Amino acid sequence: DAKQQGRSRWSEYTDVLERQHARRVAIEERLRLTLQSGGLTVEYQPIERQGQPGWLDVEALARWEDAELGCVSPTEFIPVAEEAGLMTLLGEQVLRAALTQVHDWSQVTGHPVRVHVNVSGGEMKNPDFARRVSRILRETGCEPAQLITELTESEAVGDVQPVLRQLNALQALGVRIALDDFGTGHSSLSMLEQLPVDSVKIDRSFVQNVDATPRRRSLLSAMLRMGEELGVQVIVEGVETAVERQVLDTLGVQFVQGYQVSRPVPATGLSAGPHGLTLAPVARPLARNSRN
Ligand code: C2E
Ligand code: MG
Ligand code: MG
Ligand code: MG
Known about the structure:
binds magnesium ion
C-alpha cells in the first residue's frame, strides 16, 4: 500500500545518503594520505594563441589516481579537500609542481612558458595566500609573469573584500588573474566589475554547438567585444570540434582551449619546439614529473 511504498522510498533515499557519506569519508581519508606522500599529479592542457601555433600557455589540472579508489575527478575531490581543510596543502602541491614544470620547460625552450593554476575560493580568501604564492615563485625560480591564477566567479561571491585583497597583492607581485567559467554564475558582470582581472575564460557551455546556434554565436561575439572594451583578454574554453573552432576563428577569438586543440596530458606529452611548446608527437620527454 501507499504507506509501505512511502517507507521503501524513504529507505532507498537513506541508502543513497549513506553511500554518499561513505564515499565522502573514504575520499577524505585517502586524499589526506595521498597529500602526505605527495602523490597527487598534474596534467597540462595547452591554450593556443591565434596566429602563433608554436606558442602555448598551459593550464595545470590536478589528477589523482588512488590505489583503492581508482581515478577520482577533481570535481569530486576538490570540494572534499575544501571542506576537510586540505585545500591549502593540495593547492600548494599543485602550484609547486606546476611552477617547477614550467621552469624546466622555460629552460629547455628559452621562452617564459606561462601556466594557469586554479585557485579555490577558500584559498583566495586566505590572508596568507599571496605571500605563499610569492614564496613558491621564489623557490621554483619562476617569474611572477609566468603565473596566471584562475578564480571561478561564483567562488568570489559573498564578501569580496578578502578576495580583493589577495588579488591586489598578487597583481602587485606581477601575477595575473583570470576569471574562470565566466558566464555561468549569478553575478558574472558584477564580478567582472569588482575584481581586477586580466582575462576571462568563457565557459564551454557557450561554445557547445555554437556552429548551429545563432544566439550562442551572438552571445560569444558580444562577450568578445566586452573583453575588448574592458581591456580584458578573452579565452574560450571547451572547444571540441573543428566546426566550433571555425566559428571562433571567424569571430576573431585569440585564445582557445579544448579537446580540439588537445586534451590535458602529462608533462611528458608536451614536447619542445624551437619557439616554445608544440603539440608535435613527443620526440623526447622533457623533465620527468619527479616532484609529484
Ligand atoms: P576548469 O578550471 O574549468 O578546467 C577545465 C576543465 O574542463 C577540466 O576538467 C578539463 O579537463 C575540461 N576540459 C578541457 N577541454 C574540454 C573540452 O573540450 N570539453 C570538455 N567537455 N571538457 C574539457 P577537469 O580536469 O576534470 O577539472 C574540473 C575542474 O576541477 C576544473 O575546471 C577546476 O575548476 C577544478 N580543478 C582542477 N584542478 C584543480 C586544482 O589544482 N585546484 C583547484 N582549486 N581546482 C582544480
Ligand atoms: Mg580553470
Ligand atoms: Mg577552475
Ligand atoms: Mg573553466
